[in-house]
Amino acid sequence: MASGSFKPGRLVKGFRGKTVPRERTALAIWFWEIDRVLLSLIAVLIAIGLVAVAAASPVAAIDRSTSEIAVNPLIYFYRQLMWVGIGLPVMLVISMLPRTQARRLALGMTAFFLLMLLLVPILGNTINGAKRWIDLPGMRFQPSEFLKPAFVVTLAWLLSLRGKDANLPVIPLSGLLTAIVALLLMR
After folding, report:
1. Do β-strands 130-136 and 124-127 pair in parallel, antiparallel, or remain unpaired?
2. C-beta of residue 105 within 8 angstroms of C-beta of residue 97
3. Which terminus of the chain is more exposed, N or C, with fewer CB under 10 A?
């Protein structure tokens, strides 16, 4: 884009004090206000993870192969790539949510996956000597892995309430919630 393409008055101060165009679509707001350093670090971590899985996948495939069944050497890399392909768009959509919607989503996810964590001893399957997984038709998942990011956002919101009202008992409440989650994880 040429340097003269922006006319005076087309740029305004954004949410975090950054200069953003007057266009206010969700994508434009996201693009101008996203933390690019954090986004770059996430991309680097994803790339490192993909390289690590690609390096380990052939060894794991050989371990799983038998004389009758040959496992594709890059099967675990392809699975990881599939989950990255699903996870990136989900991450980008969630990063575009307004704070109130993101907070509600985190609270709902925390409640749901806390309930799922309570159901692991009843519905869970034992894999490698530990009962951590819940089997659903077509997929198996660990509720604790989905609970962690949602719980962090929920806890951050709860602790931020202390700034609005210093009399709220948010520290003991957040400690109690963390202890409950920790006990469920250890169980």
Report:
1. antiparallel
2. yes
3. N
